[in-house]
Amino acid sequence: MGLDREGEGAPRGAPEGGSAHPERPSQPPLPTPALASMGPYLAHIAHEINNPLHCVSGHLHFLREYAGTLVEGLHACLRAARTEPAVRERLEAVHRAMELERIEQELAAALDGCADGIERVAGVVRELREFPRASERPAAPVDLHRALDSTLELLRGRVGGVRIERDYGELPEVECVVEEIERVLVNLLGNALDAVGERGTIRVRTRCVDPERVAVEIEDDGCGIASDRLERVFEPFFSSKGEGRGSGLGLSISRGIVARHGGEIHVRSQPGAGSCFRIELPVRAGRSGRGG
Description:
Blueprint: E1 2-10, E2 24-25, H1 32-80, H2 85-97, H3 100-130, E3 140-142, H4 144-154, H5 156-159, E4 163-169, E5 174-176, H6 178-196, E6 201-210, E7 213-220, H7 227-230, H8 250-260, E8 264-270, E9 274-282
Parallel strand pairs: 1-4, 4-6
Antiparallel strand pairs: 2-8, 3-5, 6-7, 7-9, 8-9
Helix pairs in contact: 1-3, 4-6, 6-8
């Protein structure tokens, strides 16, 4: 994993570099009453999904265990029959006729697919629960560079051969709820890792916009986002990653968090040339109480 730090002590100003394509502002936050009314419904949906999900997950655990026991029993029978040629021939004939080796492989793959599907649904449930919720913790002075470093460390296992370039300017501490801002960073950096795949470069830049505001940019050289999808990336339940990938809530939640802090989130992107997400936050706490 390449983690390079560049631009320490860079002059203050808006983040530089990045793609030449135009920047799209974030979609305007949904009205507070609309978000407040969505909260109980989303919580109820999450609860109704979660109960049968736990049931399916528990049964899958036993199904995997029992399937393993049955397969091992079949192999044990074949081993035991080695001393009885007639029995062994009959068992091997049944084994071939039923294609038990193929069934064993496909059963393992099917069980893995079920487990992956359950985890995806569980992730959607978690995001449904968090979507309308604002943290009750008070804002406190935060070193954004430390928050970025800890988030990158958290994602270290996903980085692999991706090059991470850190271009940090001089920033004051920012009054915010660090858990919420780190959640935004996890979403944006996770999306960037998805976009570049196994190889590519992600650049993380920070600058002071002016004495009252700071900016963080996360830019990748990945696949980019088509213009018709770019207009919708902040919509709840819309995912630019394609069918079956992502819940479509990460960017919407991130937008809501940034808005609650009195900030803004923008994106610019071009297919084949990567994407750049830019967060601007006030230095002093600017929490508005808006949902997201």
